[in-house]
Amino acid sequence: MTVCAINRAPVFGEIVDGQVQLNAVGKVVCDIWLWLPVQYPYVTLDEWCVMPDHLHGILALGPPVDTLVTDGDVPKVRRKPSVGRFANRPYDIDRPLDQPG
User: Collapsing DSSP states into helix, strand and coil, what is residue 19?
Assistant: First the structure.
């Protein structure tokens, strides 16, 4: 999926020397992306990146990955990787994050 900022404005950061430098808003986007499988056990994250004006991400929707699978006659539990809950930290955000209307 791709999620774009309003008017493709670079509200998540900037490119410096060919590298994305996220600002506070961009860090919030990262934290919330990582929080998705914590809140919704049917979400599994794959590759993703935050750019200055948009987010690219691949996620899978389905049954929780903590499921019992068999390897021949031996049952195994397959677990999704732990991403932890995003930190409840202060962000230096000086503009509204929602779209008017």
Answer: strand
CA distance 24 to 12: 7
The answer to whether residue 84 scores a pLDDT higher than 50 is no
Give the global pTM: 0.62
**Is the CB of residue 5 less than 8 Å from the CB of residue 13?**
no
CA separation for the pair 57, 69 (Å, rounded): 27
- C-alpha angle 61-24-40 in degrees, rounded to nearest 5: 20
Contact 66, 76 (CB under 8 A): no
Residues 43, 61: Cα–Cα separation, whole Å: 5
* Distance (Å, whole) CA 72 – CA 78: 14
The answer to whether 44 touches 60, Cβ cutoff 8 Å, is yes
- How far, in Å, CA of 2 to CA of 9, rounded? 15
